[in-house]
Amino acid sequence: MSSYVGVVVSDPWLxxxxxxxxxxxxxxxxxxxxxxxDRFTVGDLPPVLAKLNAFSGTFDEDEIKSVLDKSYSNTxxxxxxxxTFLRAYLSVQARGVxxxxxxxxxSSSFLKTSTTTVHHAxxxxxxxxxxxxxxxxxxxxxFLKSYLPIDPATNAFFDLVKDGVLFKxxxxxxxxxxxxxxxxxxxxxxxxxxxENLTLGLNSAKAIGCTVVNIGTQDIAEGxxxxxxxxISQIIKIQMLADLNFKKTPSLFQLVDDTQDAEELMxxxxxxxxxxxxxxxxxxxxxxKQVTNFSSDVKDGxxxxxLLNALAPEHSSxxxxxxxDPTERAKKVLxxxxxxxxxxxxxxxxxxxxxxxxxxxxxxxxxxHRNGLTDDSSKSTSFAEMMKDDxxxxxxxxxxxxxxxxxxxxxxxxxxxxxxxxxxxxxxxLDKVSPGSVNWKHANKPPIKMPFKKVENCNEVIKIGxxxxxxxxxxxxxxxxxxxKKLLLAxxxxxxxxxxxxxxxxxxxxxxxxxxxxADILYWANRKVKxxxxxxxxxSFRDKNLSSGIFFLELLTAVEPRVVNWSLVTSxxxxxxxxxxxxxxxxxxxxxxxxxxLLPEDIIEVNQKMMLILAASIMYWSLQQQSDTESNVSEDAxxxxxxxxxxxxxxxxxxxxxxxxSPIVQDQELLTKADEDTDKDVVDGDGDGENNNDAQ
Length: 696
Description:
This protein is an all-alpha fold. It is 54% helix and 0% strand. This is Calponin-homology (CH) domain-containing protein.
């Protein structure tokens, strides 16, 4: 596997203004228009830029022309090169910031679409806190101990992240996410190995709920501080909030009075649960205000003084409450917290300044050390049935939630069963996976108080689903509003499957728009394994033999011979051996570049839906790599080939003219043969590649 080379811009300053993901996307747009137009000139820029997602709805063509006239007056016939295109983009973007108020805070929605380094600064206090966290939690790591402790005053933190090793933090946040056998841990890594680590880290970060939109491996390899800190802060936040759920902390039921309140609490984001816990103790301690955030509501330190007095009466002191100066009070609060070993994340200045991230980490640390809740077995028993139901559906809910968040939608999903009921997020997802499918004039934006408005959104969701040929017999929008878990999970499965199949379809230049079926993927995988001399074969995606993991390891070897270390593979006969293989498969696939959200249990139990997605993800990566190679060759020869977009959708390839021995030709032959087979069959949508007429 070749090392990753990002888009290179000759001007270092201009290069620094964009992430690699942004550069690849903009390079694709530039090449597309350069190919479409005989001459791509400055006069062509306004309509081209107006169509970009970053500026859609913010500017029209006339406004963009007005902005560009200041820099490119009387040069409308001048031909545009890529760097001119980038500078024009930045000019319009800068005007967007001014238009929305001229500050970071007021332009947050704009920057969400087009985050570039020009708008980001490093918070040294946060950096010091995260370095302290790493030094504390990873000090005994066999590989990292020779590099620790890190001095927060230097850039050693960013240098160490370049090799991807600090993604071991992910396993602290969600144990077992990364099989460390898949990490390259040599002291000196070559470009391939470094890129594999970073790819494994980014895909694993997505798999635990981090938002990594607009972050590529090259950005981390370059050690871009704001991107590194942003990613590390998300991982640490997930770790610190890991206990804020009923499974880990059943005593959280003390915060509610009845089943309805408990269901509502289960649907809250962890930080909202933390606020509820904090207010629960503050109310008992006699604090009359309501804390609604970890910034302005805690910056005077008074709430902390009440909270610590309530949780640790043996260390209680009225000195902090009697102190009038906020900075002095913050110092007293941290002195008291230090007696509970809870000072690591912030300084008195951070409290007074209202640093939301660090205050959140501080309160979470207090919760971890002493939550002040007592076990109430009678109350816990009364909610047992509800928890049982949650366990049964939680694995699929987790998968779909993480997948939705990985798409980069504007709304972050904390709980599928609650956050999707108003239909808005589903419309956002549909617009992502099928651009233009949503008529936003018919959509009702949250907050939505009137129930019929939610039904309208969900009816639109069902309408679009039917247009995409989903199986939605007797399903209405009100079923989503009412929180019908079974129907919602069935809809999300069809949506995820549709997305994967569309990606594969877009990679098949020879398909002429023909749809891909589940059996195509199964056929491709079996033939791929067979052609490299391996013996495993899958009868379907419910084949119980898949539980050993051998088939998928052989498939991974078939698409990239060097990626699997077979000395680490077990026979897969015992349950323990199956789990070892399953965890290794997931990490190897992510290391290769597959964005997947399944768990080892899905492989061991042969969850047919997840087996289909896993095979499809490997197939997508394989075809994409081969297509990228062909596309790069074409672009080098003509300098006019369409570059790949961030979604991996590539330009047409001349497969008929390729050599017979080309791997992509072999893959195309497999798919063509599979098409012939499936033309005769009716393939169901449940991910098994078999013929049956079972209801979805």
